[in-house]
Amino acid sequence: MWQCPRCKRQFQKNNQSHMCTLKDIGELFEGKSDEMVLAYDDIVQVISRWDPCSIGASVNTIIATSKKAWLIIRPMKKELDVKFYHDEEISSKKIKKQSLWGKKYAYHIRISRPEELDEEVFRLLKLGYEYSLK
Predict the structure, then answer these.
(1) What CATH architecture applies to the domain 21-132?
(2) What is the dihedral of CA 110, 114, 115, 118, to 10 degrees?
(3) Which of 14, 24, 113, 129 could anchor a disulfide with 35, C-beta 3.0 to 4.6 Å?
(4) What is the per-residue pLDDT for 10?
């Protein structure tokens, strides 16, 4: 893993091209509901136990990286858009949107409060995490 000396984000390849930002994760939650912040905190509490996992801010998103970026969290007006990738089609009522992204699928889950985070959501996120380690 390579860490950008400027923004401290971690990447799979040395000198990997990226949008370097010094934004703090807290800035992305300015003006957002306390419930959304608590939901984000709960997600991070679980995924940070999956080693390796590095979490950093980009311009408008939070990115979790293992060997590669595997989870993109975008704080929206009223909810978090939680996007992960997998190479197989996944069926779940928790998935709000899916799209083909090259040879993999991008899955979006929307979360607005901690009570929406359940075993199914974390099972799906774990699938995305495990796919990133391949």
Answers:
(1) 2-Layer Sandwich (3.30)
(2) 70
(3) 113
(4) 67
